[in-house]
Amino acid sequence: MADTPANDGFVTFDRVQKSYDGEALVVKDLNLSIGKGEFLTMLGPSGSGKTTCLMMLAGFESATHGEIKLDGVSINNIPPHKRGIGMVFQNYALFPHMTVAENLAFPLEVRKMGKSEREMKVKRALDMVQMGEFGGRRPAQLSGGQQQRIALARALVFDAELVLMDEPLGALDKQLREHMQFEIKHLHEQLGITVVYVTHDQGEALTMSDRVAVFNDGRIQQLAPPEDLYERPENSFVAQFIGENNTLAGTVERIIDGVAEVRLSSGEIINAEPVNVSQPGESTLISIRPERVEIDHTRLPADAHLIDAEVLEWIYMGDIFRTRLRVAGNDQFVIKSRNSGDQRKLVPGERIKIGWAPGDARALEVTE
Amino acid sequence: MTTSTEPVVAADGLPLKRSLARALRRQKIRALLLIAPLLLFIVLTFLVPIGNMLLRSVDNAIVEETIPRTVEALRGWDEAGDVPPGEDVFEALYADMLIATDAKRHTRLGSRLNYESSGMSSLFRKTNERRLGRFELEQPLAPQFEDIDEDWITLETWRVIKSNSDPVTAGYFLAAMDLRATPTGIEPVSDLQAIYVKLFVRTMILSVTITAMCFLLGYPIAWILANLPSRSANMLLILVLLPFWTSLLVRTSAWKVLLQQQGVINDLLVWVGVLADDNRLAMINNATGTVIAMTHILLPFMILPLYSVMKTISPTYLRAAKSLGATDWTAFWRVYFPQSVPGIGAGAILVFILAIGYYITPELVGGTDGTFISNRIYYHISSSLNWGLAAALATILLAMVLALYWVYDRLVGIDNVKLG
């Protein structure tokens, strides 16, 4: 997992391991370098070790092995309150017995900042999240979205260079969540802070991040910018976890000039890009994104592969149509087509030919 | 749409409020029936006795009921002067006493008046049916009463009778505050007799001490309980409740065994060499004993409300405070502690109110300087049979608790009390 050259390693995890019970490793040999000003998202299912990594960085959990460095200095033995890392918690953790302004002043007070400077900073932080008039309220008097903004302002008010966010939008409804995603992204750009963001929502990860680290089973499965992650997943887990994905099982016949010929279980042979298969005879899963599959053959390149399909279900979803097909024995094969006006409605039972550009079919390893 | 000034009307034209009330009536009746047994029980066993006690603390009808003519005749007598009442009063007294001795009520009146002035009991007991029967009615009655007891013609006796002739008296309350009424006004009783104010003050001080001790010992335990995984927390919670499984009397007696001068703790200290054998600590039968034993008994009442409130405080708050730069102590003091205040309030009120009225433990381990006002109340109910004074003391105790409750409400706010 090579870093991009821009990375100067503001935060680095060096061979970090973590075990809670001395029997199983929750985090297995984590190596990660986060550049200054980067927005890095740790994405993964629950229990994948992403939150543990964040807690180790914040100082609430200690690494069983390995070293965590902040700006070149090892922070393994620095207590959380001396790390100067801002943090936004899942349920905001706004202090209920303090007003919004007191919540924001808290980190400044414990830093022994003077009253006038404190007030100025609190006001600036509140204005930054458009909550200037709410300083006198109690957290309980605010809506979820407003609390979220205050939590954000509180993590930023003491000018932390690194801000950690632990599923901060998990408690918001969909619309507000999407709105807040952009706000956080804009704040990140404006302030030039480094953000480490933990989520299990892949949409969130793709929207906001410079790079995404996909966690599973205590390891980073792929660390890449959102586009690479979606377009070029490096293994089956990432392909399945990020976005919707169709899989066709098959066996590699041969690999010539970076193109794998794969015999599907139905006997048909198709071309695919070999990602982590190398040997003829190897079992493979061909991964194809639903939106890359075309019904309209005129939109396909000349070398596109066409395959028989039977329509099982056709669902109108507003902006797109979602069609479920049986393809090469897989009856969960889904295609998404844009509601473009000239699209025709498919009828269940109809037999059609579908196709995709050869580069969109990726031959990945078979997982158990 | 109707405007806000007109009453809203239901579909049948009746005011909506009345329709709603009718619709809810069945529910209300059912709810009332469900609580009726408890309501009746509380009224009979709690409100009635308390009301009775409040009345008894001022009730003085016995004098007027037993010797009504005397009370009437005494109206003309000037108690501030230095002349005993005239013959008309003695005639009235004779008539009253004849009836009273016949009904055997004169001794009860004597006991009652004896609370005000000692000697009255025997005075009335002596003035019995037999002595009254030998009176010669043609002769003046005053000297004949004097023959029975010369107290009958002293000013003091008649002042006591006259000052108690109202059916309502403040005498019990005055006595309960170490005061007494004299013809010249209210004045304190002599220092030797004054005990109640001292006892009230001691009861307050010891109760506050016990509450503070329970808080100091209970807070860390509650904190540990609230932060342990629930399995081990439940186990420890059972240990906290374990004392409830043992009789209060047994536990208190166990403290005697532990704390007495020849007891386990003193023996141990002497054996270790911390104490000289002739210098053993007096830890029982005094205020120390009361505080130790009652802190032990009341501790669960502090721990449980604290625990249930702390359980609701998310550990994330402490983490948040630390991530914002607070040291462990600042995080606790500024963020955790304020959120646990409702639990402290509930625990403190519970312990304090239980302590202030506690009876059995101070009785057993309090000795002379560790007893509470409740021990005195019990004494007046069961031994001296001065129920009026007992009622007055209890009423003052109740008033003190209510006053403290009010102060607490003002300072902390009763809405801030949480049991979980």
Element layout with pairings:
The complex is a heterodimer of chains A (368) and B (420).
Chain A: E1 11-19, E2 25-34, E3 39-43, H1 50-58, E4 65-70, E5 73-74, E6 86-88, H2 100-109, H3 115-128, H4 144-156, E7 162-166, H5 174-191, E8 194-199, H6 202-208, E9 211-216, E10 219-224, H7 226-231, H8 236-241, E11 246-256, E12 259-264, E13 269-274, E14 283-288, E15 305-316, E16 320-327, E17 330-338, E18 351-356, E19 362-364
Chain B: H1 16-56, H2 61-66, H3 68-74, H4 87-102, H5 106-114, H6 120-126, H7 129-133, H8 141-148, H9 155-163, H10 171-176, E1 179-182, E2 185-188, H11 196-227, H12 230-241, H13 248-259, H14 264-272, H15 287-311, H16 316-323, H17 328-356, H18 360-365, H19 373-382, H20 387-411
Antiparallel strand pairs in B: 1-2
Helix pairs in contact in B: 1-20, 3-4, 5-6, 11-12, 11-15, 11-17, 13-15, 15-17, 16-17, 19-20
Properties at a glance:
heterodimer, A: 368 residues, alpha+beta, Rossmann fold, OB fold (Dihydrolipoamide Acetyltransferase, E2P), 2 domains, six-stranded mixed β-sheet, five-stranded mixed barrel, 8 helices, 19 strands, disordered N terminus, B: 420 residues, mainly alpha, MetI-like fold, 3 domains, 2 strands, 67% helix, extended, EC 7.6.2.11 (chain A), Spermidine/putrescine import ATP-binding protein PotA (chain A), ABC_transporter-like_ATP-bd (chain A)
Would you write up a description of this structure?
The complex is a heterodimer of chains A (about 375) and B (about 425). Chain A is an alpha+beta fold and about 375 residues long. Chain A has eight helices and 19 strands. In chain A, the strands form four sheets. In chain A, strands 6-7-8-3-9-10 form a six-stranded mixed beta sheet, with helices on both faces. Chain A has a five-stranded mixed beta barrel with strand order 11-12-13-19-14. The radius of gyration of chain A is 24 Å and the shape is globular. The two termini of chain A are about 25 Å apart. With about 425 residues, chain B is mainly alpha-helical. Chain B has three domains: about 55 residues, no CATH class; about 110 residues, no CATH class; about 220 residues, Orthogonal Bundle (MetI-like fold). Helix content of chain B is about 65%, strand content about 0%. Chain B has 20 helices and two strands. Chain B has a two-stranded antiparallel sheet. The model of chain B has no long low-confidence stretch (mean pLDDT about 90). The interface between A and B is medium-sized, with 27 and 19 residues.
